[in-house]
């Protein structure tokens, strides 16, 4: 019914209603919200019903007249600060349809989108508006009110999930394909008995590309759940292969994965197969000459003493743990694994270069720590080289944490190495005494 100064009249009415609404206590518990003793929830519902005709008026007016723009501006001033900034919402698991404050927030956000101001645009454009007041104190007060409203709006959308379905999203179709592929592989593998998939199948290209593809999912997929599923599927695939198939696959992945974590996973599987062979059924693929050929791929450093120990720490720790297991479980006189006849080669190719590499790496990182501490005194930013890659402009405090973490890794490797060498010495000394006796 309003014809002249409609926007001014609506703005005045909304401002008066909001000022009265802000005086009412905000209910915090589920019981208080449902009791609504002070009528805040009922007032919010009434305010929505009061505002809706004006929103419809803006939507229906296609002329975009000056009066219509003014009316739109007044509706935009609907504050999301009070009472929503301090309100407590019912848990998502509850019947959220009975939460009047959530419904109130949803309606307001819907109004904003309906009049051509989607919430995402409002959040991103906040702070870019032109000056509208001649008096600084009015400008600052409006900025504060708007900032609080935008903070409340962001919380409602991103935390409470109200109207989040309106957000533009990019569908990553490849993740859906990966997920379905992994599910299909799992379904097929579960139909096969363990240790029954013949090694000859690995001569078929498609059979060998499956574990190689799983390695790519494990190491390159950005989604953690898919990476974990890829790891579980690789383990399931390994379980289905016969002993020679496992042996062949381990050799292949050790030669092609180029990833310390994957290699550590394979080495752990090798250890498990050796353990089963020693405890249960003799298996020629994980004892004697065949095992020694496999250990040649495990108990060595790719670049000798100059190997990047930090980058290869997972593989090195797994290799040391495997060697420690072999020393403990296999007596020199029995020599079921062939370890003791190859001990000198293992020492030359693995243990001695590892000692040298640890000394070099620790000296390098200790020097870097000293340099970082000196830089910290000067309060400058500095660069750091880790894994032969420079990380620029790192604050000295952060650099020190990285360096100390590296030293801790080296100390851990060194402690396991010392234990392995101690066990070798004890075992060889004991065998020597037995032979003399």
From TrEMBL:
GO cellular component: cytoplasm
Regions annotated as coiled coil: none
Source organism phylogeny: Eukaryota, Metazoa, Chordata, Craniata, Vertebrata
Signal as UniProt keyword: yes
Top-level division of the source organism's lineage: Eukaryota
GO MF terms held by the record: ubiquitin-protein transferase inhibitor activity
Pfam families reported for this sequence: Kinetochor_Ybp2
Keyword annotations: Signal
Cleaved signal peptide residues: 1-23
Keyword flag Transit peptide: no
Protein name: Glomulin
């Amino acid at each position: 019914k309003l014809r002249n100064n409609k926007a001014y009249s609506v703005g005045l009415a909304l401002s008066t209603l909001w000022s009265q609404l802000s005086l009412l206590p905000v209910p915090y518990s589920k019981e208080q919200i449902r009791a609504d003793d002070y009528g805040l929830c009922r007032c919010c519902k009434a305010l929505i019903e009061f505002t809706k005709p004006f929103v419809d008026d803006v939507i229906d007016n296609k002329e975009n007249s000056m009066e219509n723009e003014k009316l739109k501006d007044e509706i935009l001033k609907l504050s999301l600060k009070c009472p929503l900034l301090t309100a407590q919402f019912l848990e998502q698991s509850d019947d959220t349809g009975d939460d009047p404050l959530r419904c109130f927030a949803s309606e307001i956000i819907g109004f904003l989108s309906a009049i051509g101001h989607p919430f995402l645009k409002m959040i991103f454009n906040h702070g870019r508006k032109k000056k509208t007041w001649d008096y600084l104190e009015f400008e600052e007060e409006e900025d504060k009110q708007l900032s609080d409203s935008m903070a409340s709006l962001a919380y409602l959308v991103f935390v409470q999930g109200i109207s989040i379905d309106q957000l533009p999203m990019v569908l990553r179709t490849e993740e859906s394909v990966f997920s379905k592929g992994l599910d299909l592989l799992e379904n097929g593998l579960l139909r096969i008995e363990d240790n029954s998939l013949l090694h000859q199948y690995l001569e078929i290209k498609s059979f060998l590309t499956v574990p190689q593809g799983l390695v790519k999912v494990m190491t390159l997929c950005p989604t953690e759940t898919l990476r974990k599923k890829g790891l579980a599927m690789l383990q399931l695939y390994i379980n289905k292969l016969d002993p020679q198939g496992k042996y062949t696959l381990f050799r292949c992945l050790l030669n092609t994965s180029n990833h310390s974590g994957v290699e550590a996973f394979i080495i752990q599987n090798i250890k498990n197969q050796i353990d089963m062979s020693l405890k249960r059924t003799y298996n020629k693929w994980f004892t004697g000459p065949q095992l020694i050929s496999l250990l040649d791929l495990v108990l060595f450093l790719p670049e000798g003493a100059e190997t990047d120990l930090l980058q290869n720490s997972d593989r090195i720790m797994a290799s040391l743990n495997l060697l420690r297991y072999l020393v403990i479980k296999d007596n020199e006189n029995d020599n079921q694994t062939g370890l003791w006849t190859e001990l000198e080669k293992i020492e030359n190719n693995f243990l001695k270069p590892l000692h040298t590499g640890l000394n070099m790496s620790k000296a390098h990182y200790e020097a870097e720590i000293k340099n970082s501490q000196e830089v910290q005194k000067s309060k400058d930013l500095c660069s750091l080289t880790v894994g032969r890659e420079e990380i620029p402009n790192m604050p000295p405090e952060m650099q020190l944490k990285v360096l100390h973490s590296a030293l801790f890794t080296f100390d851990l490797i060194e402690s396991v190495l010392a234990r392995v060498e101690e066990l070798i010495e004890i075992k060889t000394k004991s065998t020597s005494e037995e032979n003399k006796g």
